[in-house]
């Protein structure tokens, strides 16, 4: 873990994500294309992106994005499951990690001081993930219950920060923010086929639409949720 990675605390990451309300998730069949798509999203205004380890050559893609990221933009690694994964992605320059489940990587990263967005679906999983040192809970797949389910899970845990991920598109994002999500994670609805070599221009258009939606939500008082 580099000293630059160490400088990113969980509190700093959480505050930034609360303000941005958006996390880009890039997963495809081409690491080079995923890196280009992630950088394009950053150029449009996305401050937080993750490269999933299921993407071929993901570590090289993380290195590329980290080296070229605009000032103030952070790159994370997704689908991080094991201690070995944690070590590899931090060596590649990932500044935070994301898991799809209650994986061993949560406690391993927390012990190393690396912020973790931990995957959980049920109230018990969310509680366990926070006990293991998670920075925030990635409610995944959020689409299984929608904003109503998120609200129900938040009711007994009003102080756990939730990020809704899985099936969140432009028409769904506001509902999750209104239900208390501090942010939404955007995969296919953002990058489309761009992470596999598809059209970057269309992805940039979608990125601008999500950014405009988040800005509009903030201006009408949406920044006051207690997630």
Describe this structure in words.
The two termini are 30 Å apart. This protein has 227 residues and is an alpha/beta fold. β5 (116-120), α7 and β6 form a beta-alpha-beta unit. The protein has helices at 3-6, 10-20, 31-44, 58-68, 83-92, 105-111, 123-131, 146-154, 173-178, 188-191, 200-219; strands at 22-26, 48-52, 74-78, 96-98, 116-120, 136-139, 162-165, 183-186. Strands 1-2-3-4-5-6-7-8 form an eight-stranded parallel beta barrel, surrounded by seven helices.
Can you give keywords for this protein?
disordered C terminus; disordered N terminus; single chain; 227 residues; 8-stranded parallel barrel; alpha/beta; 8 strands; 11 helices
- Please summarize the sheet with the most strands: 8 strands, parallel, barrel
Order the strands across the largest sheet as they lie in space.
1-2-3-4-5-6-7-8
Helix/strand structural class = alpha/beta
Number of strands: 8
Radius of gyration based on Cα positions: 16 Å
Shape: globular
Treating each run of at least 4 consecutive H or I residues as one helix, how many helices? 11
- How far the N terminus sits from the C terminus, by CA atoms, comes to 30 Å
**What percentage of the residues does DSSP assign to strands (E)?**
15-25%
Tell me, rounded to a whole number, the average pLDDT: 94
Instruction: Catalogue the unreliable spans.
Output: 1-6, 223-227
Tell me roughly what share of residues is in helical segments. 40-55%
H/E element sequence:
HHEHEHEHEHEHEHEHEHH
């Amino acid at each position: 873990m580099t000293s630059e990675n160490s400088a990113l605390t969980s509190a700093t990451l959480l505050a930034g994500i609360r303000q941005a309300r958006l996390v880009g998730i890039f997963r495809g069949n081409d690491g080079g294309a995923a890196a280009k798509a992630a950088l394009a999203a950053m150029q449009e205004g996305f401050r937080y992106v993750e490269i999933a380890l299921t993407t071929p050559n993901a570590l090289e893609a993380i290195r590329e994005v980290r080296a070229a990221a605009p000032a103030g933009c952070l790159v994370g690694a997704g689908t991080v499951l094991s201690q070995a994964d944690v070590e590899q992605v931090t060596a590649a320059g990932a500044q935070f990690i994301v898991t799809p489940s209650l994986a061993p990587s949560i406690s391993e990263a927390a012990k190393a001081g690396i912020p973790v967005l931990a995957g959980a679906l049920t109230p018990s999983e969310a509680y366990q993930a926070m006990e293991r040192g998670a920075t925030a809970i990635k409610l995944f797949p959020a689409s299984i219950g929608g904003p109503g389910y998120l609200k129900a899970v938040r009711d007994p845990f009003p102080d756990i920060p939730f990020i809704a991920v899985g099936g969140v598109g432009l028409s769904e994002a506001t509902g999750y923010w209104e239900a208390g999500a501090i942010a939404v994670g955007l995969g296919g609805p953002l990058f489309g086929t761009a992470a596999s070599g598809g059209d970057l221009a269309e992805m940039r258009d979608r990125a601008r639409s999500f950014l405009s939606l988040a800005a509009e939500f903030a201006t009408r008082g949406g920044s006051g949720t207690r997630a």
